Amino acid sequence: MYLLKKIKNKLQLNYKKKKWPGLINAYKQHLPVSSKTPIISLKEGNTPLIFSQSISDLIGNDTKVYLKYDGLNPTGSFKDRGMTMAISKAKELGSKAVICASTGNTSAAAAAYASRGGLKSYVLIPDGYVAQGKLAQALIYGAEIISIKGNFDKALEIVRDLSEKYPITLVNSVNPYRIQGQKTAAFEIVDDLGFAPDWLCIPMGNAGNISAYWLGFKEYSKIKKNLNLPIMMGFQAAGSAPLVKNIIVKDPETIATAIRIGNPVNRDKAKVVRKESKGDFQSVTDEDIIEAYKKLAKEGIFCEPASAASVAGLIKNKNRIKKRSNIVCVLTGNGLKDPDCAIKNNDAVFQNNIEPSLREITKILGY
Ligand code: AN7
User: Fold this and answer.
1) 3-class SS at 326?
2) Ligand 1 center–CA 205 separation, angstroms
3) Whether residue 184 has its Cβ less than 6 Å from ligand 1
4) pTM above the 0.90 mark?
5) Dihedral angle at the C-alpha atoms of 75, 81, 86, 87, nearest 10 degrees?
6) How far, in Å, from the CA of 220 to the mean position of ligand 1?
């Protein structure tokens, strides 16, 4: 009996140890935190890397395609990785308020983590271009929301100015702690696979995330022997592709409102990533994006349209992929963020206004 109890206790202890502590605690030794940093966490990170049979089959050539489903973070996007760091450091440094410009996800994450940390949050968003789920989040988490008659790029210009003049911490991806937190996604991929993928496919807006992944892979390669670095493939929407075209896009337009960004702040960093990784930046049309979005959903994975750009981009490169490649596509945000898009773009059979009679419904089912 005693022995049994002892074994049981030990098992329970192991189980507790295995509980995910949030990404700062999990990767402390790789992050600029100390015992003085108040860790503001919602247990973000540790998102699943899901093998996709249907996308792998579509690519063929014995390719294995995995999806890094970062839409399963606490506020439904990868922004939580950066925000746990940005808000923890803001609090450590005595800040009382944070500000960001956002196409939606940054504002949701900033509002949530600021509230949790007892800080005030201000968010500037482009009027009419933030998906409903994201707006709902910013509202309920308690941000002060300023919706401007202008796009994301204009909003970012304003918040950068404000944060220089007043004691408000900027939490867009120009904040270096954001990139530090986001690099942990690369660590997780390597920890899951046991190696780095041959290709990493990722959507780009401001190009903070692609820069963060690259930093993560490079840092891990210094401590893990024989770690090959991936080719970094960044994808933008055709109507909003400043990095692909190497220009500033004045009036970006795309169904993927998350990446409706015409003047990415991390432009130079992104170019370095492309060069160092021998990667490429390409555009995908809104039609390509919706097609990939539906394909993913058919396998049970619901992401937002911007995230589907990574898979749309991969599909476009089908003929360039070497045999037996391992590929990771990053799904940056949850599909529930943008319910309108799913309601407008699906192949479902939806019959409404039906009489609630067995006869009527049997007829519809075709029996
Ligand atoms: C789902 O929320 O810029 O290339 O203000 O929400 O690091 O900018 C969002 C960006 C990809 C692009 N996928 O990442 C914002 C914002 C989703 C996003 C991106 C965003 P970056």
Assistant:
1) strand
2) 5
3) no
4) yes
5) 40
6) 24
